[in-house]
Amino acid sequence: MDYRQLGSSGLRVSTITLGTMGFGGAGNFGNVGSGDVKEARRQLELCRDHGVNLVDTADVYSDGRSEEIVGQALGADRDDWLVATKVRFPMSPGGPNDAGLSRHHVLRGCEASLRRLGTDHIDLYQLHEWDGRTPLEETLGALQTLVEQGKVRYVGVSNYSGWQLLKALGASERHGLPRFAAEQIYYSLQARDAENELLPAAVDQGLGVLVWSPLAGGLLSGKYSRGRDGTLKSPKGSRHASDWSEPPIDFPDRLFATIDVLKDVGRARKVSAAQVALAWLLTRPAVTSLIVGARDTDQLADNLAGAELVLTDDELARLEQVSRPPLPYPYWHQNATAADRFGPADLALHQPYLHDS
């Protein structure tokens, strides 16, 4: 297992992170998985044997049950792991202030997460989603309190847009408040939108990048195919066979073509399509770690092997070509007129397109 620096922080994390959204199985999260403490211990043991050192959860996953399972499964081994969790969404039963990123909710949310996890600190505390109704200075001030109290060691963000991310980083610098060490984003061969703003921002601002759903909710696992009617053919029991809506499938033809190339490369290398998809992501600029969640240890073992796969230049080129989206404005214009002055952050997006200009 390789380890990468989490942005400009001093923290080193494994290139695979254990995701735990499938622990607990409550409500809609049951479409993802229903792992209990025994299953969690098996997965943690397998991850530890492969060198994984980061586990990611959130208070909202199965209404707190995922955090409880993680805490119980880690037990006396807690200090051998980095634990990341998140705050933002309401927990049931909730009142009018039991959501968002107010000081009230962030401080209460952290205390509740600490109790469920059975720990005295959270290694990476992440804002799970944007809150446009709470001043950033209030949210960042709450995080500063938690850092000063020793309850949080690093802070991060999840699912922010480019302008939201930069606005928050600017507020941190102006007011001397905690600065995000990492952003957690959706990014995969199925949807490369993050290349437009979020990856260049990470390169420019020195942020780590944790990728959630790197297999597009299983779409890139090799288990899905095009049905006779041209729509997605979902395996029985999969999340896309339910009412789970993430990620949306906006360009099905490109998705099916990408799946075909993943399977073809996998057959040639005698590995799974999932491993190929994960290996591709680990070549991308600024990507630090891929968050993989699995229903069982067999699935997890297959995903872990993706971190060891090194793709050839020809294989990378095939995957790049089949999955590449068109550049939106203003990037197509910049690609045609400003490429002579591109810096490292620009190239995080533009490098594959330069020959088109």
UniProtKB/TrEMBL annotation:
Coiled coil: none annotated. Keywords: Oxidoreductase. InterPro entries: AKR, AKR_Detox_Biosynth, Aldo/ket_reductase_CS, NAD(P)_OxRdtase_dom_sf, NADP_OxRdtase_dom. GO terms for cellular component: cytosol. The keyword Oxidoreductase applies. Gene3D superfamilies: NADP-dependent oxidoreductase domain. It holds the Pfam family Aldo_ket_red. GO terms for molecular function: oxidoreductase activity. Residues 16-323 form the NADP-dependent oxidoreductase domain. It comes from the Bacteria. This is Predicted oxidoreductase.
